[in-house]
Design brief:
This protein is α+β, with helices and mostly antiparallel strands. It is built from six helices and 14 strands. The strands form four sheets. A five-stranded antiparallel β-sheet has the order 2-3-14-9-11, with no helix packed on it. A hairpin with a 7-residue loop joins β4 and β5. The longest helix has 10 residues.
Length: 256
Amino acid sequence: MNIKFLADSQEALDTLIERPYPAIEALPKWYKKLPLRIDPKQLSPQTYSSNPLGRSIKMCMPVFDIMSAGYHIPLHTDVYFQDHPDGSGDIDIQWSESFDNIVSYHPREQYSGYPVPEGYRDLAFKWSIPWVVQTPPGWSCLFVPPSHYDDQPFKCMPAFVDTDKHPVPVLFPFFLKKDFRGLIPKGTPVIQVIPIKREKVKSSFGIVPKSFKTRQKIAFTDIFNMYKKHFRSKKYYEQGGEIKTESKCPFSFLHK
């Protein structure tokens, strides 16, 4: 499967230095600093009884897999938020003159009744990201805030878009922390894009099959990396190059 991030023109593509990249290339800073194991001496008696080996969340592969899933779309220019000098309480937003409409206000009527995250302004903005995301037929994309990036001053609303049919850039509504004033630098991951194949799904109920129980018994003999060794499938999200534009000459095939 090939996911494409398309700019409006070659000139726009050349201007956009910050490009979407595999999410695994920018894991959260707190995660990188975290050790795989915590010294058992530092654990409380209650914690030690349930986790005597001191395994940290860094050994939890499902957490790693959601953080590294898909791609990040980064902010392509610095954006600065400050109080408007007229004292109205409005926010004044500045960005590079090379780009238009990076941030706009989201009409209140459209999100009336939406549960605004605690600690955020009751005012929604929109990121205008200059990429059309294109997927093959039958593939959609889940757009979510970068997973476990809790130190960001903004939070986007998640969305599910049928990107095999959507021909324009997706706008990402977001809320800004109440006390935030300052710079959001270019390169900051704005949204995480996770391609998902559309299939008909039906639920059912039953009991755990014997094959699963056998697999459980075998897996539980491993103390470390049980999930990684026995249950996990590796995921691949690669970075490709630019799409070659075919010649418009009707006789170009003669020169191949």
